[in-house]
From TrEMBL, chain A:
InterPro entries documented for this protein: UPF0229 (IPR006698)
Species annotation: Billgrantia endophytica
Region (Disordered) location: 60-111
NCBIfam families from the UniProt entry: PRK05325.1-2, PRK05325.1-3
Similarity remark: Belongs to the UPF0229 family.
Domain of life: Bacteria
Compositional bias segments (type: Gly residues): 91-106
UniProt protein name: UPF0229 protein C1H69_06280
From TrEMBL, chain B:
Protein name, as recorded: SpoVR family protein
Residues that span the membrane, as ranges: none
Domain SpoVR-like C-terminal: 446-497
Organism: Billgrantia endophytica
Pfam families per record: SpoVR (PF04293), SpoVR_C (PF24755)
Length: 427, 519
């Protein structure tokens, strides 16, 4: 007796739990690989999985086994030239253990020093952002929100045909039919009984007029019964949708970068990675993320990505010009009620001295109150200048929403990024 | 000459065609007296096959990271094309569950049905080890019970606690089998009902054994070197607990470990039961694969003889079959030990040859077999042997010559390896002995037993490792001892004993201080 069962439609990923357990167990190993990968990878290259290797000895499942030594006899196939009593030099290092058949019960590919496997893109990004928290993730308050989303809200009597709730409609129709037919049926039954009674009388006692009357009545009632509609317009019920205001799931990220002569391409690459990490991070938390690139030297300009990263300028630096532009763009295009606003600024710390004070005032007074978060990274191995000091006082005023760090080389980015966004335990 | 009327041609399959072939196979298998469990053939996708692989082919299993590791390894190997997924997976259960992958060609599906649903299936039902040690009808129920129980424990005691316990049990699972006693089969419900009783009862017993206040009249044991004051007449002198060495480490732990909670004992038991279930498979690789290959070969040829498959399919089959039973030589880059399919297939085919067409050599070596009814002999061989004894009994000089087997003696007291025997008159028997020994589990795995539990003193546990031909333990002994220590709760020691009774080496965990620095 044989059964065939088609299981192809069954759930895949039966091992998902076990896979996750494995990843959890070797979290530290995997994290190390992921961190290396983030530092190594090119900027456009974050959105894919990663091959991870773990030293096999770290994840072995030990069992009692024979070690090398002692005396053993190994049977092997494929003898070509040996005869009994031949003496052979020991193969270097090992003891030719390959001949021992499926020795022991090491269930892993033997002889592998590294246990290698591939993380999926999601797993990879999970590890990249593991333990990080988007600052002030509390979505924009509901007040003055234009963003709405239709949600189900029971059933209603009117609506469009596409939203008919069939079950409810049929139930209404059924109830109505019962209600409308019951009195007619009752009358009909009474008429039928009367007729039967009349007809069962002795022929001489029958009243032909009465019988005719009853017959007519029955016919009328049967017609009425049939006339009760099976379904009527007022039986129809529709799934009701109402528009509910939603916390904003949109975010806009302003990338602000100094492109004055002092910023080299290496500086820009570092900045780019930082922006990219932030972008990926936001993307995982909001449904929609828009990017605005603002670059500045002595004047600020909104540009596209290509120009942002790769065109070169010369001249001095006025940071406040960029802050003013960001402020303008926010007012024009991104009303804070509907957008979560993030600014990331990268610079080498150069600024015209008297401009730094302007920057601070601008930030504290106009910009910070409207922003979710402001990050500033200074890419320089040198001592800080006026801008840093002014920013420090901004940070003191908005400790929750303003973060600044120094980056010296590419390898610093990831740790700095983690530092900036690490989950805050206390409240 | 039969007119060819193949059931289907080409490489595409559908369920009607599979069913048609299956019923033909059933008819032929019946002719050959293959007694089988009902077949449950499941068509699955590649992804599901990898899942099945990762859970050692069990349809349900408890969760553990090691299965995840297995999955990742399989996935990686498969993606890189290092490994085709084995084209079949079959489970020793009643009904016998076999998986067919959807992307197999028609030929593969027919081959797999012949191999798994008739070959392996009849082996599971017929071989004495499986008959004695496994209970095909209750295994799936038991797995369901195990999965539920482990999940409940995870909820109640935390995933980490359960995981550590399972790690420890897995390290010892090869020593969680009874080699001589047969356990009585019970169903999952029964198991569940008993489990509660057992938990209470067991704890009570363990408590008795480990009472804090020593019993003034020790029933059995004074561990070695304990003061004789308590037993001045020496009535119980030399007694140990356990009185006899115990080979089933997990069983001993389940019943005797002082500190385990009842749920922990139950999990030890689950791992032990599953190890026991897989125990026959570990001892019959050559026979099982050889038997299945022998029958897929025979059945496919019958299908061809009757014209039910066409030449194209047959050629594809022969190519696949040849690859499966290929044995690369020891010096080939593809060599990875003796291929159990090759050896097993060669031996079963040779038994048939000896019966049908015996030579003088066969008559001399196998007087009982030569010229008998081949079907009787192969059935007899399948039923009554395991790899070790099967090779000892049936490995013929012809197979040794065909495979050009030879032995190499590796003695660490000699500078050079020595060729011990080759495929000649003087070598046949020695090669046969060596090969049989090579498949004996007792030789493949170190011989380790519970020697003594110091129930009056420091509660330490002492194991004995009896060295075979002076072969020492690998360094993995330390991590395994650590796991054992975790289960036992008190120091564990191991004495590596030479065959002539001297102690070659002692291990212990936790490590003594000065040695701890060295590790």
């Amino acid at each position: 007796m044989t059964y065939f069962i088609d299981r192809r439609a069954n759930a895949k990923h039966k091992s998902a739990v076990n896979r996750q357990r494995f990843l959890d167990r070797y979290r530290t190993h995997i994290k190390r690989s992921v961190e290396e990968a983030v530092n190594r990878r090119s900027i456009t290259d974050m959105e894919r999985g990663e091959k991870v290797s773990i030293p096999a000895r770290d994840i072995s499942e030990p069992v009692f086994q024979h070690g090398p030594g002692g005396k053993r006899t190994i049977v092997s196939p494929g003898n070509k030239e040996f005869v009994e009593g031949d003496r052979i030099r020991r193969p270097g290092g090992g003891d030719g253990g390959g001949g021992a058949g499926e020795g022991g019960s090491s269930n892993q590919g033997e002889g592998m020093d590294e246990f290698a496997f591939t993380l999926s893109r999601e797993e990879f990004l999970d590890f990249v952002f593991d333990g990080l928290e988007l600052p002030h993730l509390e979505r924009k308050a509901l007040v003055d929100l234009d963003e709405v989303r239709p949600v189900r809200a029971g059933v209603s009597r009117d609506g469009v045909p596409a939203r008919i709730n069939i079950v409810r409609s049929m139930r209404e129709a059924y109830a109505r039919r019962i209600a409308m037919r019951a009195p007619i049926r009752r009358a009909l039954r009474e008429a039928l009984e009367a007729l039967e009674e009349e007809e069962s009388k002795d022929p001489v006692l029958r009243n032909p007029a009465r019988i005719a009357e009853l017959r007519a009545e029955i016919e009328r009632l049967e017609k009425r019964l049939e006339a009760v509609p099976y379904i009527d317009t007022y039986d129809l019920r529709y799934n009701n949708l109402i528009n509910q205001p939603q916390p904003s799931s949109k975010a806009v990220m302003f990338c602000v970068m100094d492109v004055s002569g002092s910023m080299t391409q290496a500086h820009k690459d570092i900045a780019k990675r930082f922006f990219l990490l932030l972008y990926l991070f936001l993307e995982r938390n909001y449904e929609k993320v828009e990017l605005v690139f603002v670059r500045h030297h002595t004047a600020a300009k909104e540009v596209d990505e290509e120009e942002f990263f790769y065109s070169r300028e010369t001249g001095g630096t006025i940071v406040s010009s960029a802050l003013t532009l960001v402020d303008e763009i926010i007012s024009k295009r991104y009303p804070p009620g509907q957008w979560n606003l993030y600014v990331a600024q990268a610079s080498d710390g150069d600024n015209w001295d008297d401009d730094s004070v302007t920057c601070r005032e601008q930030l504290v007074k106009t910009l910070m109150p409207r922003l979710q978060y402001y990050t500033y990274v200074e890419i320089t191995p040198h001592a800080h200048q006026a801008l840093w000091e002014e920013y420090e006082s901004v940070a003191a005023e908005y400790p929750e929403r303003f973060a600044m760090r120094q980056i010296v080389e590419a390898g610093d980015i990831y740790p700095v990024f983690r530092e900036l966004f690490k989950r805050r335990v206390s409240h | 000459m039969t007119r060819r009327k193949p059931i289907a041609t080409g490489s595409d399959w559908n369920f009607e065609v599979l069913e048609a072939y299956e019923s033909e196979l059933a008819r032929l298998a019946d002719e050959y007296r293959l007694d089988i469990y009902p077949n449950q053939i499941e068509i699955i996708t590649t992804e599901q096959m990898m899942d099945a692989y990762a859970s050692v082919g069990m349809p349900v299993g408890y969760h553990h990271w090691s299965f995840g590791k297995q999955f990742l390894a399989v996935e990686q190997a498969y993606r890189r094309g290092q490994m085709g997924l084995a084209y079949e997976l079959v489970i020793n259960s009643d009904p016998c569950i076999a998986y067919l992958m959807e992307e197999n060609t028609l030929m593969m599906q027919v081959l797999v049905m012949a191999h798994a649903c008739y070959g392996h299936n009849s082996f599971f039902k017929g071989n004495y080890l499986f008959r004695t040690w496994t209970d095909a009808s209750s295994i799936v129920d038991y797995l369901v019970f195990a999965r539920k129980y482990v999940a409940e424990c995870e909820e109640r005691h935390g995933v980490t606690a359960v995981e550590q316990l399972l790690d420890a049990c897995h390290a010892l699972q090869n020593y969680g089998v009874d080699r001589y006693k047969r356990p009585s089969p019970i169903s999952a419900e029964e198991e569940m009902r008993r489990q509660n009783e057992r938990a209470e009862y067991l704890q009570a017993q363990v408590n008795t054994l480990w009472r804090t206040i020593p019993d003034r009249k020790p029933a059995d044991a004074l561990p070695d070197g304990l003061d004789t004051e308590e037993d001045p007449l020496g009535l119980h002198g030399g007694g140990r607990y356990p009185p006899e060495p115990q080979e089933n480490l997990l069983y001993f732990i389940e019943k005797n470990a002082p500190l385990l909670a009842p749920w922990q004992r139950e999990i030890v038991r689950i791992v032990r039961k599953l190890a026991q279930y897989f125990y026959p498979q570990r001892q019959t690789q050559v026979m099982n694969e050889g038997w299945a290959s022998f029958w897929h070969y025979t059945l496919m040829n019958r299908l061809y003889d009757e014209g039910l498959v066409d030449e194209g399919l047959m050629l594809e089959f022969l190519q696949s079959h040849t690859a499966v039973v290929n044995q690369p030589g020891f010096d080939s880059p593809y060599y990875s030990g003796i291929n159990p399919y090759a050896l097993g297939f060669a031996m079963f085919s040779d038994i048939k040859r000896m019966c049908q067409d015996p030579t003088d050599e066969d008559r001399e070596w196998f007087p009982d077999t030569a010229g008998s009814d081949w079907l009787d002999v192969v059935h007899f061989a399948m039923r009554n042997f395991k790899d070790e004894s099967f090779i000892q009994q049936f490995l013929s000089p012809k197979v040794i010559r065909d495979l050009k087997l030879f032995t190499v003696v590796d003695d660490d007291q000699e500078d050079m390896l020595e060729v011990g025997a080759i495929h000649d008159e003087r070598g046949y028997r020695r090669i046969r002995d060596s090969l049989a020994t090579q498949y004996a589990l007792s030789v493949r795995e170190p011989n380790i037993q519970v020697y003594a539990a110091n129930i009056r003193g420091d509660r330490s546990l002492t194991l004995h490792h009896v060295q075979d031909s002076r072969r020492p333990l690998a360094r993995s002994v330390y991590p395994v001892m650590r796991h054992l220590h975790q289960l036992w709760g008190f120091p564990v020691r191991m004495e590596s004993v030479l065959e002539d009774d001297g102690v070659a080496r002692r291990y212990q965990w936790p490590l003594p201080d000065e040695e701890a620095k060295g590790h």
